[in-house]
Amino acid sequence: MSYPYQITNIEQYHRDYKRSIEDPAEFWSTIAEHFTWKKKWHTTLNWNFSEPKIEWFKGAKLNITENCLDRHLEKFGDTPALIWEPNDPDEHHRILTYRKLYEKVCQFSHVLKNNGVKKGDRVCIYMGMIPELAIAVLACARVGAIHSVVFGGFSAQSIADRLYDAQAEYIVTCDGAYRGQKDIPLKSVIDDALIGNRIVKKVIVTTRTRTPVSMIKGRDLWWEDEIKKVETLGLTDFPAEEMDAEDPLFILYTSGSTGKPKGVVHSCAGYMLFTTYTFVNVFQYQQGDIHFCTADIGWITGHSYILYGPLSAGATTLMFEGVPTWPDAGRFWNIIDKFKVNILYTAPTAIRSLMGFGLGPVHGHDLSSLKVLGTVGEPINEEAWHWYDEHIGKKKCPIVDTWWQTETGGILISNLAGITPSKPSFATLPLPGVHPILVDENGKEVEGNNVSGNLCIKSPWPSTIRTTYGDHERCKTNYFATYPNLYFTGDGALRDENGFYRITGRVDDVLNVSGHRIGTAEVENAINMHANVVESAVVGYPHDIKGQGIYAFVIYQGSHAQNTHGTAEMIRKDIHQTVSRIIGAIAKPDKIQFVSGLPKTRSGKIMRRILRKIAEGETENLGDISTLLDPGVVEEIKNGKL
Ligand code: WTA
Questions:
Q1: Residue 232 has what pLDDT?
Q2: 621-630 tens-digit pLDDT
Q3: Ligand 1 centroid to residue 185 C-alpha, Å
Q4: Which of 228, 316, 356, 590 is the most buried (most CB within 10 A)?
Q5: Does ligand 1 have an atom closer than 6 angstroms to the CB of 275?
Q6: Does the C-beta of 262 come closer than 6 Å to ligand 1?
């Protein structure tokens, strides 16, 4: 079975695209007819980018979980909604049918309500990749609470900052999480994050690893005990809260060019529509297909293409707790074989890392169920693209290279599997409803083909970022003020002779390390917290597996080579420890070079351009360094390059 809004041939793509740009309101309101509403909208679209104000389906009432669960019960009640594969292949997997998932979400909605969670409250979710994470997210949406999922790799300090920014009163977490050989004590990290916190009222903890935890009286509750109370009462339904189309659905923090992560806010109706529409069209999902997105639900990809998009489409979505390389580098291929996966959606960094193990781990697994492959999160290099195509897709699966961002909620530029053409390392064409343009530094549109520029979007699509939580001005400055009346993506792109887009990478101070966004300023702030660090500058450099690595230039008090605090190697480890504490292990620099000074202009601005070139291995063409306060420092930095 296909979907009424599924694009089935290239002519239709062009037709739908044209219609969507000429009259977005008409286009999206026709699609919206295929969703479940408690009340219909009176105004399809109302917007201006200058405030910014973006409103879709104003006047409508809905609950996204009725679209993700209730509406499928009659037809697909016994169909698997969620397949869960544990970290340890010897542990049994779990399958939750639509009915089962519905019941579990309803039960946990009662738990939330019993503990005081109301519409609009912020609930921070810090969990491993277990079904309870999906259940917690959906239960928040069902009671109308705003979830803020924090990736399990972030430190206590990062959680504390996010809790405070969102003024979250509730937390849902696990005792611990398994990831490969590691056992991460999540509850203990939460306990650290809560030192001095006076806002959080309740912490609900589910059992996964049975790591010792300290449960604080009056604040901490076991998930299982709370569910038992609901079960005793025989409650398996929960009336979904009536939400306005524009009520916030969730907050997801992401890095920008300033030191502080931003709470990106998405709203109910537009996000639902766009994630469902793009899921069905980009991957060409057919009823019965098994969709395996390898992202973590702590990132936007997991929100949109493990949970909301697939579930709203009545799809079967596979959620994997572990890592691609444990117990061996054949784990993905093993899962594909075991569940006869049809769609695999992963990150270029995972492909590159698995390529490094050769073809051994691929052999012996039957991958013939695969129909569509996808990539997301960073530009894919041609070598990785061809390896994916040849050895995983066996040259019979279209590869969709999907470009989008936390702020865009869903995929904006991508080929549609088997419908529109693909081109290695090109995201290709925009989705219907998406109007990309390229501009030069002055914001002047760069027209025609075979050109490059900064990538902007001209008009709103349904899941455009609505605000940054608690600070609307910041949303405006970050995304809508660089170029008037345009949404600025922060990415550079080129458009080839066919009008296909290739994303060339960030043009701001944001790094993309293994598909994770990390702001250089954030890492610098963390390094600078180390007692002996005077100053630091962080830039990215090309990394074979991670895409970009983190290169830190650090001025260390006293001698940097050997001093009373140990050797340079020991000091590097101290700095790693500091960054892990402040942000999380994902932000640890790959290289730390000690320097006696940083290249600065006379006005004191660090010339990152020069540092970037040095980190990339360029020694000759560093550009004009005559405006530097101390040009001599450049020579020293060049000579000390790691
Ligand atoms: C980058 C992830 C090239 C880009 C969904 C963007 C990509 C940032 C691609 C957003 C792609 C994402 N090709 N680059 N297919 N997809 N990016 O918010 O720089 O974690 O701005 O969202 O990742 O990262 P985020």
A1: 97
A2: 887 778 888 8
A3: 29
A4: 316
A5: no
A6: no
The DSSP code for 601 is B
CA distance 151 to 129: 10
Residue 461, pLDDT score = 98
Q: What are the CA-CA distances from residue 482 to residues 53, 456, 597 (Å)?
A: 16, 10, 32
The C-alpha angle with vertex 531 and arms to 530 and 537, in degrees rounded to 5, equals 45
How does DSSP classify residue 39? B
* Ligand 1 neighbourhood includes 490 CB (under 6 angstroms): yes
Cα dihedral sign, 209-213-219-221: positive
**DSSP E strands, 127-176:** 146-149, 170-174
247 pLDDT above the threshold of 80: yes
| Range with the poorest average pLDDT among 55-59, 240-244, 499-503, 569-573 | 569-573
pTM of the model: 0.97
pLDDT beyond 90 at 87: yes
Query: What spacing in Å lies between the alpha carbon of 407 and ligand 1's midpoint?
Result: 10
408: which DSSP letter?
G
Question: Which residues fall within 8 angstroms of residue 326, CB to CB, at 6 or more apart?
Answer: 87, 180, 181
Q: Does ligand 1 lie within 6 Å of residue 406's CB atom?
A: yes
C-alpha 77/C-alpha 99 separation (Å) is 5
- What is the rounded (10 degree) CA torsion for 482, 484, 486, 488? 0
Q: Which tokens hold the place of 359?
A: 């073809």
Ligand 1 centroid, distance to 62 Cα (angstroms) = 30
Structural domains of the chain ordered from first start:
67-115+125-237 (3.40.50.980), 512-639 (3.30.300.30)
Residue with CA closest to ligand 1 atom 5: 405
3-state secondary structure of 487: strand
Please give the Cα distance from 512 to 379 (Å, whole number).
Answer: 10
Q: Is 187 helix (H, G, I), strand (E, B) or coil?
A: helix
CA of 197 to the centre of ligand 1 (A): 33
Paired sense of beta strands 170-174 and 122-126, if any: parallel
pLDDT digits (tens, 9 = 90+) for 385-435: 999 999 999 999 999 999 999 999 999 999 999 999 999 999 999 999 999
426 lines ligand 1 (CB under 6 A): no
Q: Is 283 exposed, middle or buried (0-12, 13-18, 19+ CB in 10 A)?
A: buried
Residue closest by Cα to atom 3 of ligand 1: 379
Q: Which atom of ligand 1 is nearest to the CA of 401?
A: 15
Instruction: Find the range with the poorest average confidence among 343-347, 509-513, 527-531, 562-566.
Output: 562-566
> Is the pLDDT confidence value at 564 over 70?
no
CA distance 595 to 561: 10
Alpha-carbon distance of 70 to 77, in angstroms, equals 9
Q: Please tell me if the CB atom of residue 468 comes closer than 6 angstroms to any atom of ligand 1.
A: no
Residue nearest to atom 12 of ligand 1 (CA): 377
CA of 532 to the centre of ligand 1 (A): 35
d(CA 249, CA 65): 11
